[in-house]
């Protein structure tokens, strides 16, 4: 059958609709595939408030879906924080490691900090090998990397080798560019105002 | 006794130290006063990922400190999210209201959205009057305000009239300037990258 200029508009529309349907099916399949195969690496960085708390909100979400979660806190830990106290209530669901000994400016001991960071990474690697843990939080890892306490290549290699479906959330200021490159989602949290600067101390429930 | 150029360095140092100690005592007193008297209004805004999850991380922190928490979700709610499922496990500690019916672009019914928003604010106001609830989360309130579904002056007045020690966390894009003005801490979350844009759908545990 020959095509002619008299092909109806209806015919053109039908072809267009068909083409769009094929396109939509292809996009849907790609999205379904992506969702099926890919755990997200999420990096929360920048100086503003909300990086670690956001990671812990995702822990709560994951628990709401019956998922297991692994946490390594690389810097905090001199005193147990609210999040630690809370999530330790669920030892069957949350594997919770604290390797840091307070903020770095409080410890004043570089050799000790490096030792703790490396011990922390051994625990992190263990979580990054677990098929049964769909969410891993590496809290303040960026700080540890920025200080050069861990080798970046090792960290990137272990993140890349993790189970396909596993999500990882990395927090802390100063995310290294290669980590940002590897990540699918990156948020940069800016300070518009901070209560600290108005003489209000860190508040239990908000920061601690 | 006359002072002279022969006043010792030690003497000068002692005076300096004394002055610094007085200054430090004054600053400490001011901080202690501020902490004692002031609940923080925290606003998490901007297009990046992590606003609501951060608020829910603070809920977990607060629960770790044995605090009671109130939550109103103004937009989400068409399907129960992970955070809702999880925090509803603690009905004695968390008062959890969901007033929205899915994202606004899904509902397509402005009159209904306004009605739900106003019902939500009645519940929020109730929480903002409770002395026994030290943390209140108003999730996606900014969106509701940006759409003009609630009167901003009413919202600001109720926030201002809340108990002195109560912390409030408000989330959502497009925080109105007057709310930013009233807040002590404001973070603006920027998108560096987002997995959505790479064909990966919202992930249970991360976004849902």
Report on the structure:
2 copies of one chain form a homodimer. Chain A is an alpha/beta fold and 208 residues long. Chain A folds into 2 domains: 8-37; 39-198, 3-Layer(aba) Sandwich (Rossmann fold), CATH 3.40.50.300. Chain A is 44% helix and 16% strand. The first copy, chain A, is built from 8 helices and 6 strands. Chain A has a 6-stranded parallel sheet, with helices on both faces. Chain A is globular, with a radius of gyration of 23 Å. The termini of chain A are far apart. Mean pLDDT of chain A is 84; it is low at 1-6. Chains A and B meet through helix 1, strand 1, helix 2, helix 3 and strand 6 of A and helix 1, strand 1, helix 2, helix 3 and strand 6 of B. Chains A, B: One of its GO terms (cellular component) is cytoplasm. Chains A, B: Its EC number is 2.5.1.17. Chains A, B: Pfam families: Co_AT_N, CobA_CobO_BtuR. Chains A, B: Required for both de novo synthesis of the corrin ring for the assimilation of exogenous corrinoids. Participates in the adenosylation of a variety of incomplete and complete corrinoids. Chains A, B: GO terms for molecular function: ATP binding; corrinoid adenosyltransferase activity.
Question: Which strand order do you get reading across the main beta sheet of chain A?
Answer: 3-2-4-5-1-6
- Helix and strand sequence of chain A: HEHEHEHHEHHEHE
CATH class of the largest domain in chain A: Alpha Beta
Q: End-to-end distance of chain A, in Å?
A: 75 Å
* Proportion in helices of chain A: 40-55%
- With helices defined by DSSP (H or I, 4 residues minimum), what is the helix count of chain A? 8
Structural class of chain A: alpha/beta
Overall 3D shape of chain A: globular
| Overall pLDDT score of chain A | 84
The CATH H-level superfamily of the largest domain in chain A is P-loop containing nucleotide triphosphate hydrolases
Quaternary state reads: homodimer
CATH topology label of the largest domain in chain A: Rossmann fold
Task: From the alpha carbons, calculate the radius of gyration of chain A and give it in angstroms.
Answer: 23 Å
For the largest beta-sheet of chain A, the strand count, sense and barrel status come to:
6 strands, parallel
CATH architecture of the largest domain in chain A: 3-Layer(aba) Sandwich
Strand content of chain A: 15-25%
What count of domains describes the coordinates of chain A? 2
> Which stretches of chain A are poorly predicted, pLDDT < 50 over at least 5 residues?
1-6
